[in-house]
Amino acid sequence: MKKLTMTVAVSLAGLVASLCLPPGAAAAAPVPSAADTRWRECATPSIDRLQQWLASGEGTTVPATGSLLVPLRHSYAARVTFVNTEWHVIVVWLANQFEAEADLTRSAGFWMTYSATDDVYLQLRSASHWSGGAQWLTRVPSTHGRLVTRFFSFRPSAWTWLAELGQPAHTFASALAEARGFVFVGKTPNVLEFRGLRIDGYRPPCL
């Protein structure tokens, strides 16, 4: 009876997780487990071992610069508010330092737990094409302030670019091969919070 109860509980947990995802996402990568010891947090503040969540100073944001990390009861969240109708930029260094990079060519994508009051874009910025707005990006849809977990695929068809920011001069495959950071950009007022970001097949090094 106990085994049956545990089986039902696991099945229900999988069903609840799938309800938070866009169609087809559940089959793209396994749901990360909070009990996975490989994802033990760093000694300094981090979210899924990502220690550098930064306001860049581009656009009016709160905070204006510096770390976005704030303590929760047993963990951390990254919180930022975009103010005014202008481009805002926040940065996550994937290897926890600017000079480092990660090869994500074998990764299926990433799971993100977040809330947003409006749409925002996530740019994949590479070491050799870090600067400028002409980057490969994917839309991160508004959650209307609710905390959700969604899977974002690294399929090339899931990534595009904005005419207003310019067409990338490099391929999406090359950006995956030398990924330096995720850069969130948005042109509208927005209240954002991030509580999880796990990349399939990649474990950030703690510094």
What's a quick, concise take on this entry?
The chain is 12% helix and 34% strand. The chain has 207 residues and is mainly beta. 30% of the residues are buried.
Shape: globular
Q: How would a crystallographer describe the biggest sheet?
A: 6 strands, antiparallel
Radius of gyration: 17 Å
Query: Numbering strands along the chain, what is their spatial order in the largest sheet?
Result: 3-1-6-11-8-9
Give the tally of β-strands: 12
Number of helices: 2
Subunit organisation of the chains? single chain
Uncertain regions: pLDDT < 50 for 5+ in a row? 1-28
- Beta-strand fraction estimate: 25-35%
Average pLDDT works out at 88
**What structural category characterises the helix and strand content?**
mainly beta
What separation lies between the terminal Cα atoms?
Answer: 46 Å
The helix/strand series, from N terminus to C terminus, equals: HEEEEEEEEEEHEE
Helix content: 10-25%
Your description of this structure?
The protein has 207 residues and is mainly β. It contains 2 helices and 12 strands, in the order H-E-E-E-E-E-E-E-E-E-E-H-E-E. The strands form 2 sheets. It has a 6-stranded antiparallel sheet. Strands 2, 4, 5, 7, 10 and 12 form a 6-stranded antiparallel sheet that branches.
